Amino acid sequence: MEVLLGTQALEPRSYLVAVTEHLERLGHEVRVFSADPLSSPDELRVVGVERDLPLAPDVIYSQDAEAALLLADLYPLTPQLFAAHGDREDVWLPPQLAGVVARVVVFDDRTGARVRAAALPQELVRLRRPVDLERHASRGPLPDRPTRARVRLDGLSDYRRGVVQRMLADARIELDDDAELVLGRGQAVVEALAEGRAAYVYGDDGGDGWVTPERYEALEADGFSGRLEPTATTFERLRADLDDYDRALGPAGRELAQAHDARAHAQQLVAAFDDVKPRRDPVDAPLRELARLVRLESASARGAATAAARVESADARTQELQQQLAAAKAGSAELEARVGELERALREAETQLEQPEAERKRGVRSLLGREGKPSTEG
């Protein structure tokens, strides 16, 4: 089978690499389409609108809305599946245009609910987030107490980062990629489980705690997003949760990761590919123009998110400077009070020094008064 993976800019990279490698192991030919003119990394065969497009792929598997629309225009009759990688950004949702995609692959129930809520009904294929269990092999037993942490906080606010950094500093845990515990969300959690690390779900909207066998199904269904439990993840809670660390989380996590084996994921994709049929008619819509609009909207959303992050960072910096200013003012007031105390003490000391001298002079005058003036006769 000839498979064409569709992307705007070769993202999400780890998923593309895992799917490509394991589909090729099964003997399928895989190329990755990039709407942006990007060079090919070693692990992917990248094609573009004007470069090395396959003549007639058997199936298209798109990873975002722009690629789905472009490839529906380029291959009007080729069946297409769509991977919805999350519920936060609209670019991860399938185009709301009948006939563009035949199936939507989702990796958690949260995203599935988002897709079902859209105006256009879609047939869903529910898979788990894949991980290469050979590339992410177990790193051995965990210690009784963690001393190193791997933190995956891409896209998190300065506040969230600060809470984690404060907790790690308080517990004297250093940052290190070769760590015993991992804090993150989504794919970072799945990879931590595969490596036999203690995985703590933590995202920009909160934290859901340790991934244990008892909590795995609920956390996996929520996409390891950090949004399962509507509770505030404060420094105090993080610090208390750290005390619940257990070295048994390592081997338990490795066992849980077997359900995410990339080999099984590739087999499930092939079954889904086989189940879709070619379109009987092209989609009657200006697909390239729609793809252009999706691209502009995506760029606008990214720009807005970047600006919001900068504003939040500036606000956090402003608050930090205000606290430093308040502390400096308090220190200045204390210093002024101390200077006043020292000046009073100095005056008191000078007064005490003057008293003996005055008393000595009075004693001399008194003595001279009793004995008379010294004689001046020769």
What does this structure look like?
The chain is of the alpha/beta class and 378 residues long. Among the domains are: 2-130 and 262-278, Glycogen Phosphorylase B (Rossmann fold); 148-258. It is built from 10 helices and 12 strands. Helix 2 runs antiparallel to helix 10 (287-371) and helix 4 crosses helix 7 (235-242). The radius of gyration is 35 Å and the shape is elongated. The mean pLDDT is 89.
What layout of secondary structure does this protein have?
Elements: E1 2-7, H1 13-25, E2 29-34, E3 46-47, E4 59-62, H2 65-74, E5 80-84, E6 103-106, H3 109-117, E7 124-126, E8 148-151, H4 158-170, E9 174-175, E10 181-184, H5 187-194, E11 198-203, E12 206-210, H6 216-221, H7 235-242, H8 249-257, H9 262-274, H10 287-371
Parallel strand pairs: 1-2, 1-4, 2-3, 4-5, 5-6, 6-7, 8-9, 8-10, 10-11
Antiparallel strand pairs: 11-12
Helix pairs in contact: 1-9, 2-10, 4-7, 5-8
Instruction: Write the CATH architecture name of the domain at 2-130 and 262-278.
Output: 3-Layer(aba) Sandwich
What value does the Rg take, in angstroms?
35 Å
Identify the overall geometry: elongated
Unreliable parts = none
How far apart, in Å, are the first and last alpha carbons? Answer: 139 Å
Mean pLDDT over all positions: 89
Q: CATH H-level name of the domain at 2-130 and 262-278... which superfamily?
A: Glycogen Phosphorylase B
Strand portion: 5-15%
CATH class of the domain at 2-130 and 262-278: Alpha Beta
Got a strand count? Answer: 12
CATH fold-level name of the domain at 2-130 and 262-278: Rossmann fold
* Main β sheet profile: 7 strands, parallel
User: Strand arrangement, largest sheet?
Assistant: 3-2-1-4-5-6-7
